[in-house]
């Protein structure tokens, strides 16, 4: 039998290998179930991997925002497309978690204490970066100064939608959109009208047209993520309150109504 691995390096006693580069010992030793329940490992891994994807999403969104502010739209398009693919991965994670039944979950739910996905600072960072800014949601992070400072820094800078509006201004389609970055975005007819100008003549405004569609793609995937979240929670715990004290499904349903880029949806009615 031919040895198909004759060219592969097999001795890593003195050099960096795959596991070393990825710090797999630390990653694979980061799962510590607090019960003997079979499905707790699934629950932990699903949330840990989701946090890793969210870490990448935050990285890409910040880079995309900076590229838009700098007028480097082609680079921003690539980054935004990647974020949409990341959200697709996050959506797929719910499919795995939904294999856990209510009976499975009750075997370890008490071990979670007050921990809840509502407390995910990276999810909050994604919302802030996309423009859904509510300073009250900083509350769960005030006991962690480093995390709080990170979120405060995101709030102090333009969101990705704010950056897009600066491009409308640069094109002469919108008055200076300068505002208090920490405040929630207030939908405005003037912004809808500016996007309508772009959509009515895509050839004349192609970079802005493509930017708009990339943002709609992003929100489309984000909405699917939220919908899959509420569906999974209702399937597993019904209408019970969440472990972190939220109203559970009823709270998540309200989140389905939040629009990140409202004028990009409103403009479709006007065309």
* Shape, principal axes of CA atoms: globular
Uncertain runs are: none
Strand content: under 5%
Average pLDDT rating:
90
Computed CA radius of gyration, to the nearest angstrom: 22 Å
Q: Can you give the helix content as a percent range?
A: 55-70%
Number of helices: 12
Distance between the termini: 68 Å
Order of helices and strands: HHHHHHHHHHHH
Largest sheet: none
Q: By helix and strand content, what is the structural category?
A: mainly alpha
Report the strand count.
0
Search tags:
globular, 0% strand, mainly alpha, 271 residues, 12 helices
Fold blueprint:
Elements: H1 18-21, H2 24-28, H3 40-69, H4 73-97, H5 102-106, H6 121-130, H7 145-155, H8 160-170, H9 189-200, H10 206-237, H11 249-255, H12 262-270
Helix pairs in contact: 3-4, 3-6, 3-8, 4-10, 6-7, 8-10, 9-12, 10-11
Explain what the structure shows.
- Helices cover 59% and strands 0% of the residues.
- The protein has helices at 18-21, 24-28, 40-69, 73-97, 102-106, 121-130, 145-155, 160-170, 189-200, 206-237, 249-255, 262-270.
- The termini are far apart.
Q: Brief overview, please?
A:
The protein has 271 residues and is mostly helical. The protein contains twelve helices and no strands.
